From TrEMBL:
PANTHER family: HIGH-AFFINITY BRANCHED-CHAIN AMINO ACID TRANSPORT PROTEIN BRAE, HIGH-AFFINITY BRANCHED-CHAIN AMINO ACID TRANSPORT SYSTEM PERMEASE. One of its GO terms (molecular function) is branched-chain amino acid transmembrane transporter activity. One of its GO terms (cellular component) is plasma membrane. This is Branched-chain amino acid ABC transporter permease. It comes from Parageobacillus galactosidasius.
């Protein structure tokens, strides 16, 4: 009960800080960086659902991020559809593509699945890069509109866009929490722990893996659509393999298979990268060894390491209390025996 209350306290403090951040630090640069971080967090949550909780590493999620972004851009600029209709369609179209890819990809397992999705992600990058008439190719895609007004609420300013992205991030976290602690979430965890055992007890592993994959694609494409409306310019680089490994780095550093991992890892790496911009050419030489050491000594990332440490502390505290109670009981029994002996002798 105490742990739950502490978790709620930290959650309330984090949300409160996010809400007052534009007033605490009225700096457009930091506001921009925080908004971008929120967008990447949504994408990492999508990756975490499938890799962290279902146990399958997809290396195509940067491609789905780009599909969500480019679909929104094409529907708003070239097709002339309303922004929010385009926003919804971009996520649905990405899910449809993810469903088709998942039906084939999920017939493979483990490293074969990772290699297959890596190839899919690179194919998506090539399509975006070479299809000039649709995507603009290497010239990029410009003129993407900002989110349309919702009644009296306008999204023309950086602060209003910050709160819009924050709203979607909190919504994604809420939905993720409901999924993970539902029967479906426990099913995904069972598949991650032992797919053969899950299949033996009657779980439809293919159906659940496909559902988890499509949901993860939905979250990632949602992030891509938000990215397109915020940056308002797209290039094929957002679907490149390096972006995929950035997402994976955020997840591994924060804590794969944890609820707070995407937030911690994304914030830490994003702001650390900005502070080390003068070492941009040597970024991988720095992050590579650090990430390797982290995977070796903290395979569940920073948040996973904290959870394990707290569990060990709670276990030690429980053992000490048990020993104290045992010693007290032993003392009481010994004293009672002594009193009885004195009575008999008297």
């Amino acid at each position: 009960m105490t742990v739950v209350l502490k978790q709620k306290k930290w959650l309330i403090l984090a949300v409160a800080f996010a809400l007052v951040f534009p007033f605490l630090i009225p700096n457009n640069y930091y506001l921009h960086m925080m908004t971008i971080s929120f967008i990447w967090m949504i994408a990492v949550y999508g990756l975490n659902l499938f890799a962290g909780y279902t146990g399958y590493l997809s290396l195509a999620h940067a491609g789905f991020f780009a599909i969500g972004a480019y679909t929104l851009a094409i529907l708003t600029v070239k097709a002339g559809l309303h922004f929010w209709l385009s926003f919804l369609l971009s996520c649905l179209i990405s899910c449809l593509i993810g469903l088709i890819i998942g039906l084939v990809a999920l017939r493979t397992k483990e490293h074969f699945f990772a290699i297959y999705t890596l190839c899919v992600g690179y194919i998506i990058y090539l399509v975006i890069d070479k299809w000039d008439s649709l995507t603009g190719g290497v010239r990029g895609f410009i003129g993407i509109p900002v989110p349309a007004n919702i009644g009296p609420i306008s999204f023309q300013t950086p602060v209003s866009q910050y709160y819009l992205v924050l709203f979607f991030l909190l919504l994604v976290i809420f939905v993720m929490h409901r999924i993970i602690y539902s029967l479906a979430g426990r099913t995904y965890t069972a598949i991650r722990n032992s797919e053969d055992l899950a299949l033996a007890i009657g779980i439809s592993t293919m159906k659940n893996k496909l559902t988890s994959f499509v949901l993860s694609v939905f979250f990632t494409s949602l992030a891509g659509a938000l990215y397109a409306s915020f940056i308002r310019f797209l290039g094929p680089d957002i679907s490149y393999i390096s972006v995929m490994f950035d997402l994976l780095t955020y997840l591994l550093v924060g804590g794969i298979g944890t609820m707070a991992g995407p937030v911690v890892g994304t914030l830490l790496i994003t702001f650390l990268s900005q502070q080390l911009q003068f070492l941009q050419d040597y970024r991988m030489l720095i992050f590579g060894p650090v990430l390797t050491l982290l995977v070796i000594f903290y395979p569940q990332g920073i948040v996973g390491g904290v959870i394990r440490w707290r569990a060990r502390q709670a276990e030690k505290s429980s053992n000490r209390q048990a020993q104290t109670a045992h010693s007290a009981n032993h003392f009481v029994v010994a004293r009672h025996s002594g009193n009885e002996k004195q009575v008999k002798e008297g």
